Amino acid sequence: MTVLVLAVTVVAGAVFGATAPRLSRRLPPAAATWLMSAGGMLAAAASSTALALVGFRVVAQTRPLTSRGHWSDAVLNQDDPVSTPISVAALTVLAVALGAGLHAVLTGVRSTLAAYQLAAEVGGGELHVLDTAQASALAVPGRHGRIVVTSGLLRRLDAPQRRALLAHERAHLRHRHHLHQTATMIAVALNPLLRPLRAAVRLSCERWADEDAAAVSPRGTVAQALLRAAGAGAAAPAPVLAAAVDDVADRIAALELPAPRMQVGRAAVLVCVVVAAVAAVGYGMHRTEDVFELAQAAWRAGRR
Amino acid sequence: MVDGEPARRAAGDLESDVLAALWAADRPLTPGETVEAIGGGLAYTTVQTILVRLLGKGVLQRELVGRAFAYSPVLDQAGIVASRMRAVLDSGGDHEAVLSRFLGTLSDDEEHALVELMTRRGRDLS
C-alpha cells in the first residue's frame, strides 16, 4: 500500500512537472505562479513523505526499534508488504532529496539575506540608478525594496515606457516574487521531476509584473519597453540565459493579446493532480498508523 | 517593498518618475522641462517640490541656467552601490531566483534571434 502511495506521488509529480508549465501559460500569470509554486511545494512534500513511509519499513525492522516498538513482522508483511530492497532504495532517495532540499533552503536564505542587505545599503528612495551604458533593471527585495536601473536603459526609453518599467519592477517587489522562485527552487530540489517548474515560474513572474505594468500603461507601451530594453546592447559580458529569447517573445506575444482570463478547467486539472498526491499520502499515513497498531496488538498477543 | 500610507507611497513613485526622467535626459532640466520629460500629467508645483526634495536628499544637484535652476542627477552615487552589487552577485547563492531582472541580458546572437522571431510574427520593431 505504501509503495502504491509512493507510485501515485511519483506519477503526480511527473505529470505536474510536465503539464503545469504548458497549462499555466493560458492562465492569468498571478494564478499560474501561485499554482506552480504552492502546488510544487505540496507535490514535493507529498513525494518526500511517501518516500519516508516506504523507507520507514526497513528502519522499523531494525533491532533497536523492534525491541522498543514491539511490532509483529508477520502482520506488517501481510498487511502492507514492502520488500527490504525497495525500502532501502526509498531511504536512499529520500536522503539525497532532503540533502538537496536543505541545500536549496540554505542557498535561498543566503541569497535573500544578501538581497535584503543590498537593499538596505542602497538606501535612499525607491529608485537607484547606476550610471552605466549596459541596459539592466533589477528589483531588489528587502524590508524596503529597491529598484536598481542603469542610465543606459533609461536613455533607451521614453516617459511612458519608463513608467511601465518602474511599474513592472514594483510589481516584483509588491508580490514578493523572490519567495515564489525560491519556494519553487526548493520543491525542485526535493523532487527533480518538478524541474520544468523553475523556468515556468520565472516566466510567469515576469508576465505577472508585465500585467501589473499593463494596468497603468497601455499594453503596447509595456511591449515597446521590453523591445527597446532588448535593443542594441552595449558590450556586456554578463551571464546570459539561453531561454531569454523565448521568454521575451512569450511576454511580448502575451502583451499583444488582452489580459488572460481565468480558465477554471485548466487550473482545476493542476489542482486535482496535487490534491491526488496529497490525498494519497494522507491515506498512506493513516493506513500506516493502522497497520502498525495492528502489528503492535499482534505482538502483544504473542504473534511475531 | 515600499510601505507607508498610500499618500507617501504615491510620492515615492513620483520621485522615481522624476529621477528616471532626469537620468534619461542629456542635460540638466528646469522644472518646466521636467514636467515635459515625464510626459505631463503632473502639476508644475508638484514637480518643483519633488525636485527640491530630491536635491535635499543629495540625489540631485542644480545649477543656474539663465534665470532658472536646472536639475541633474548626482553622478558619484553609482560607484559604491555598483561595487556592492558586484560583491553580492559574486558571493554565490542563487541570485537569479531572488533578483528579478527586467530582461535577461541578451547576447548579439540572441538579439538577432529575437528580431527574427518578432519579424516572423509580423511585428514592427521601431
3D architecture notes:
The complex is a heterodimer of chains A (304) and B (126). Chain A has helices spanning 2-24, 29-60, 63-69, 73-79, 84-122, 151-156, 159-174, 177-190, 196-216, 219-230, 244-256, 264-300, and strands spanning 127-130, 137-140, 146-150. Chain A has 304 residues and is mostly helical. Chain A has one domain (2-300). A three-stranded mixed sheet of chain A has the order 1-3-2. In chain A, a hairpin with a 5-residue loop joins β2 (137-140) and β3. Chain A starts with a helix and ends with a helix. Chain B is mainly alpha-helical. Chain B has two domains: 6-73, Winged helix-like DNA-binding domain superfamily/Winged helix DNA-binding domain (Arc Repressor Mutant, subunit A, Orthogonal Bundle); 77-120, no CATH class. In chain B, a hairpin with a 2-residue loop joins β1 (60-65) and β2 (68-73). Chain B starts with 5 loop residues before the first helix and ends in a 6-residue tail after the last helix. Chains A and B meet through α5, β1, β2, β3 and α6 of A and α1, α4, α5, β3 and α6 of B.
